[in-house]
Amino acid sequence: MKELCKRHGKDYKGEKVGSYAGIYSFKLDEKDFEFFKNMADTYFKVYSGIIDRRKNEKFGQKEIDHKLKTHGLWAEWTMIEDEGTLFGIRKGIPPLATLYDTKVLR
């Protein structure tokens, strides 16, 4: 899976970036339900393990600065290269609305 992710990863300003907003699917049929259910079950199992393992880790200004940098690069990439965001903007969605549900604007 790691190799597959690398192959589809984006390189923006020398950094790996990409959308972490979710998986979008259109025109789903009932036959797709089991696949997406299994994917969601796996995601929550893995993600809860990561949270349990890291929830007590300390962080400081270095980690905060890194997070701000990566979020900034993600916001730039989203406005310049992300096909889903660009589609929405072309359809008239205000650019800032595409970032509304992210921690970038909070």
Written overview of the protein:
It is a single chain. This protein has a two-stranded antiparallel sheet with strand order 1-2. The chain has four helices and two strands, in the order αββααα. The model has no long low-confidence stretch (mean pLDDT 79). Helix content is 54%, strand content 6%. The longest helix has 22 residues, at 33-54. β1 (10-12) and β2 form a beta hairpin. The chain has helices at 2-8, 33-54, 61-80, 83-90; strands spanning 10-12, 15-17. It has one domain.
Counting DSSP H or I runs of 4 or more residues, the number of helices is 4
How many domains? The number is 1
N-to-C SSE string, H for helix and E for strand: HEEHHH
Helix content: 40-55%
Overall spatial form: flat
GO molecular function, one term: coproporphyrinogen oxidase activity
